[in-house]
Amino acid sequence: MAQKLEAKGGKGGNQWDDLLDHDNIAKIHVQGGHEGIQYVKFDYVKFDNLKIGQPKLGSIHGLSRKGFTQTFEIDPTNEHLVSVEGYYDESKGLVQGLKFKTNKKTSDMIGYDENGLKFSLEVNGKKIIGFHGYAQTYLNSLGAYFVTAPPTKFDYQGGSGAQLWDDGTNYNGVRKISFALDANEIRQIRIDYDKGGLIERREYGGNVGRQEEFVVDYPSEYIIYMEGTCDIVSDASKNRVRSLMFKTSKGRTSPIFGKVAARKFVFESNGSALIGFHGRAAAAVDAIGAYFSRFILPPSAETLQAKGGEGGDPWSDGVFNGVRNIYVGQGENGVSAVKFVYDKDSQVAEGNDHGKPTLLGYEEFKLEYPSEYITTVEGCFDKIFGSGGGVITMLKFKTNKRTSPPFGLETTSNFVLGKEGYKIVGFHGTSSHELHQLGVYVMPI
């Protein structure tokens, strides 16, 4: 069943909807001018029972006139659109610029983003199959329909000899890759997959030579990039894979396994994890290909204990994809209330008031989500008469880009919430008519 994200951008225009009677997007047309995006047009593909794509040309949304026109082509057989990033002018109600990302490449910014408000259309593990929105003489806003994205298959690279093998796409991820290396050959590859929490091993080639391995801290880490080299000889049956190297979601790079040869190849899919291999092997690894999938279950969040004074009743907002906005209210003794706005699968999720706001209301700290996320929270607390055991007097939030101003007054008792390499994805604590304690939920970045 398709998931619909509401149109984002400016106000106004006439409603349009390309609906859902297609399976993929083949080509995107965008015409822009000095004011903003003049029109968009999407060409779709519908697959028949033989998996042959039938083109479905879309309509122009907006008004075609003099301006620059750019196109972005997608191979519908093994490529799909995963997200759209856009910017709009709130005062004019017009979309200024658009950038499209597939599982294999990213377009240039079509239009411009100067002084515009940013929006994004993306759902983890899903692809876009249709668009809707509002337009008249310009594009006012843009929304999208999402369905579960299929894995991306990269054809094997190397030689055409030896026996075919294919592990498919039935695994959750890769836990460990081991090798038997002899002189300038990868004699054997062994893959330990995760399947529902259990390890399944597959091995190809002959176990001859020195042993080396690369261990992945699954499920909090996964392989996002694979690079290799192979021969270039006229007899393709004599070509072999000579070296392999991997990069992970935690920024780690493996050693180069084997000896670098003449021709380089790279497997990488935007926002996806390596979940399977295929190729050719007999006495050695002749060829190798890979499967990548965006359908990644996030690792379980880790709870960091709440810090501050004593007293109040416990509360918890739970775990989300990230934090969009923070609201802090101050009172006579310190922080009177907090409220957090989160992101849950590209939808805004507003938390409750924790504490009781005063007539001063809230101060806001707005994040540039999803490119900005909270890494640590600094706070102070004090035992103040009548506060029921202690109240938080100051909060300050640090992101991957900046640090917020302090909300409240610093006191001698302080604390820091955060973990190196992790981002904050939820809050918990205790409160009454004031905020007594604050804790966080964190996930690996």
Quaternary state reads: single chain
Q: Number of DSSP helices?
A: 0
The biggest beta sheet is recorded as:
5 strands, antiparallel
Gyration radius, to the nearest Å? 26 Å
Helix content: under 10%
Describe the structure.
By secondary structure, the chain is mainly β. It has strands at 3-9, 14-17, 24-32, 37-47, 53-56, 61-62, 68-73, 81-89, 94-102, 110-111, 117-122, 126-135, 139-148, 152-158, 163-166, 173-182, 185-195, 198-205, 210-215, 223-230, 241-248, 257-258, 263-268, 273-281, 285-293, 302-308, 313-316, 322-330, 335-344, 347-350, 354-355, 362-366, 374-382, 391-399, 407-408, 413-418, 422-431, 435-444. Strands 3, 4, 5, 6 and 7 form a five-stranded antiparallel β-sheet that branches. Strands 28, 29, 30, 31 and 32 form a five-stranded antiparallel β-sheet that branches.
